[in-house]
Amino acid sequence: MNPLVFALSGALTPEGHLLTQRVYYEDTDFSGVVYHARYLHFMERGRTDFLRCLGIEQAAMAAGPDSLVFVVHRMEIDFKASARMDDVLTIRTATEKAAGAKLILNQEIRRDGALLIAARVIIAVINARGRPQRLPAPLIEQFSAASAS
Amino acid sequence: MNPLVFALSGALTPEGHLLTQRVYYEDTDFSGVVYHARYLHFMERGRTDFLRCLGIEQAAMAAGPDSLVFVVHRMEIDFKASARMDDVLTIRTATEKAAGAKLILNQEIRRDGALLIAARVIIAVINARGRPQRLPAPLIEQFSAASAS
Amino acid sequence: MNPLVFALSGALTPEGHLLTQRVYYEDTDFSGVVYHARYLHFMERGRTDFLRCLGIEQAAMAAGPDSLVFVVHRMEIDFKASARMDDVLTIRTATEKAAGAKLILNQEIRRDGALLIAARVIIAVINARGRPQRLPAPLIEQFSAASAS
Amino acid sequence: MNPLVFALSGALTPEGHLLTQRVYYEDTDFSGVVYHARYLHFMERGRTDFLRCLGIEQAAMAAGPDSLVFVVHRMEIDFKASARMDDVLTIRTATEKAAGAKLILNQEIRRDGALLIAARVIIAVINARGRPQRLPAPLIEQFSAASAS
Questions:
Q1: Taking the model in full, what pTM does it have?
Q2: Which residues of D touch C77 (CB under 8 A)?
Q3: D84, closest residue in chain B (CA to CA)
């Protein structure tokens, strides 16, 4: 794979989708570490690029006639350790379950292998009218293939 | 109470601490509603002003010799409905439990009474060396008094 | 005026529109002071509430048939001193010029009277098709009346 | 150069430092395009990685005995066109002037070559006591070498 594309959008691996991101000033707060809500930004970037690597461009998909929108319904987040300015983080996104109109993802943020954040994200799949929309079978297969081994 | 102070820092009520905040451009994303991680900002503002109304200035407390730092350890967040640009939101913060070196808060974000976000926030209390620090008895009493009736 | 409304949306005064806002964790970075780009958030809140106090709801106005959208075209910002966690800031917004399809605003952020940020904001007024749109005469009068005395 | 390192921190080129970044949900607002203050985040990432490529780690440098802190003093920003969700942006950072205790940088944000944002950033160099600090001669040489050709 082109390493530039890999670096920008991450890659699907046997452990799930992996994305590398840097911590900048904007991510930190006066306590000296990363502001807690910023980890949700890193995880959202991970989910977006996970979908991108599966061939799903969210902006395009939301606009199309058979629109499919992914909405975060619930998050359970364990904050285990803190990231700091200049840290290089790896965001891992893997499917726990893909069925009906629901998607459950497990996400982790690590620095040099050490686990900083672990999250479980329950996502509702809806259509343009805001109603639940069953995931098409090919997508379910794709998501299921991206579960952590 | 001075209404300007109330409006800026909210107030302790029999239902817990209430803070009113407006949704601005910065809070929304291209899907047209508030970006999911921004609700954590609103809740953090609520917790900060809850502590402020209890007489706890976090910046001062973290700097003092008997420093006490409140660190989010786990969040469980249900995203039930979306807020939009210009909405006026009420953030409610109430104590579920205050004991030892742990604080559990329940937080809700409502618009015109309708529940948008419900969260359970587990907070670790630590000292300047990052070690667990038991909450002083007077603080436990204060937190316990601020449970939802 | 109702002090709660004043506190939430600020007020038009002979010096221009004044809005009071608190600095929270989210606004700071690891250097200990407010992250430079956050001052633009505070100023955007000031402009939004300046328009609101003039009777202009941007979300509604952008959606209407004679839509009018305000787009920041250029900013000149002097960062004179830093704000910190828990500070209470006053954002002042005043008209420098309102003519044709252009609006020039002067904005200041102060803490206890001390000037922290001074900015000049050049705004283009466009319609739904992205073309320049002359400000209606009554709006020009309103904006002009809100110049600093 | 290792393409992964290039992709993460950008690279010094004859045109100045170039950094590639993606637009995510967090960067957009309900108007459909990138929120204006977010361009300052992209530019700050560019400046941080420009310094990193020059061998300057800001967090380490600010902590050292001969600490050197770079503080944004003034910004002039032209917003020429808008970025959107999923866009890939290139942030260019080049030295206009490095002398005494002052650094002037020119920054641009482009998408597929099209200029979206042009900015002039005046930076004050200070020491740990907040006093102006002359740039060491080797740093001035390094910055001067990174002017756009």
A1: 0.95
A2: 74-77
A3: B30
Distance between CA A87 and CA D143 in Å, rounded? 24
Nearest residue of chain D to residue C36 (CA atoms): D72
ipTM score of the complex? Answer: 0.93
Residue to test with chain A: of C28, C30, C36, C82, most A Cβ within 10 A: C30
The CA–CA distances, whole Å, from D68 to A33, A132, A145, B14, D96 equal 20, 55, 50, 51, 20
Q: Which two tokens stand for residue C117?
A: 């940020």
Beta bridge partners of A123: A72, A103
Which amino acid, A142? Q
- Strands (DSSP E) contained in C35-101 are 69-79, 88-99
Cβ contact, residue pair A7, D9, below 8 Å: no
Secondary structure element (H or E) that encloses residue D125, with its range: strand D114-126
Q: H helices within chain D, ranges in order?
A: 3-9, 38-53, 58-63, 137-145
- Give residue limits of the domains in chain C: 3-145
**D22–A3: do the CB atoms touch at under 8 Å?**
no
Selected catalytic residue, list C29, C49, C66, C86: C29
- Euclidean distance between CA atoms B76 and A74, whole angstroms: 7
- What CATH code is assigned to A3-145? 3.10.129.10
Token couple for C59: 């979300």
Q: Looking at beta carbons, which residues of chain D come within 8 Å of A41? A: 24, 26
Contacting residues for A60 by C-beta, under 8 A, at least 6 apart: none
Q: What residues of B are in the C interface, CB distance below 8 Å?
A: 3-4, 6-9, 20, 22, 24-26, 41, 44-45, 48-49, 52, 57-59, 84-86, 88
| Nearest-CB residue to C7 (from B7, B45, B49) | B7
SS3 state of residue C42? helix
Residue A1 is predicted with a pLDDT of 46
pLDDT 10s per residue in chain D (149 long)? Answer: 456 666 799 999 999 999 999 999 999 999 999 999 999 999 999 999 999 998 887 666 777 667 788 999 999 999 999 999 999 999 999 999 999 999 999 999 999 999 999 999 999 999 888 899 999 898 899 999 988 66
B27 an active-site residue? no
DSSP letter string, A60-119: HHHHSTT--EEEEEEEEEEE-S---TT-EEEEEEEEEEEETTEEEEEEEEEETTEEEEEE
CA gap D65, D127 in Å, rounded:
9
Residues 6+ apart with CB under 8 A from D86: A52, A57, A58, A59, D22, D23
Contacts D22 to A, Cβ<8 Å: 8-9, 45, 49
Q: What angle do CA B55, B59, A79 make, to 5 degrees?
A: 105
| CB-closest option in B7, B9, B24 to C45 | B24
